[in-house]
Design brief:
mainly alpha, about 190 residues, globular
Length: about 190
């Protein structure tokens, strides 16, 4: 048996069972993230999009091209589209990236946490694709003491969702009014 097979057939099913039934298990798993990452027993990983070596990658252009196709498709039905870039929690809170760097033995000079947002916003704007980058907004809110993600998992909490809603509301309002005034009834 290979280690990958053991993880997939033994550890992952046990993990899934205990995550659903034991708060103590979830608590311990959270506290032991670094150890679990080093032995490969965690779903956490560090995405390659943050590595500086990916700055010239085609993935940015491919993503923008796909978004452009989506935007064109909706435009055929007079439906406005807005792309919203949501940051990872470790992009917003410096103490979390320090944990990830330790967990994955990362060197700070090899990564840029703003790279994906900068590359995508630049390409989206070049193609006139409506986009909102929530990273600067979330960073400002974090500096004001807001915590925008869950304490147990790293998904946005109610405050995070509220900040996104407040940020995109003017665009939604303007585009709904435009659509209503032009007589269209399709909305995205």
């Amino acid at each position: 048996l290979r280690w990958e097979d053991i993880k997939r057939s033994v550890f992952y099913p046990v993990n899934n069972y205990l995550e659903q039934r034991s708060h103590l298990f979830v608590f311990l798993k959270d506290r032991l993230q670094i150890l679990l990452a080093r032995v490969g027993l965690t779903p956490y990983y560090f995405p390659d999009i943050f590595y500086l070596k990916e700055a010239g990658s085609r993935k940015w252009e491919v993503t923008a091209a796909m978004a452009h196709l989506i935007e064109q498709e909706f435009r055929q039905f007079n439906t406005p589209v807005l792309f919203v870039l949501l940051p990872a929690d470790y992009q917003v809170y410096p103490q979390l990236i320090a944990k990830y760097m330790k967990m994955f033995d990362l060197s700070p000079e090899l990564i840029d946490l703003e790279q994906p947002n900068q590359k995508l916003v630049e390409r989206f704007r070049r193609k006139s694709i409506p986009v909102v980058d929530m990273l600067p907004v979330f960073k400002r809110k974090a500096e004001q003491g807001f915590y925008l993600y869950g304490r147990i998992d790293n998904h946005m909490n109610a405050q995070g969702h509220a900040v996104v809603a407040e940020t995109i509301f003017p665009w939604v309002e303007q585009n709904l009014k435009s659509s209503l005034l032009s007589g269209t009834r399709s909305y995205a």
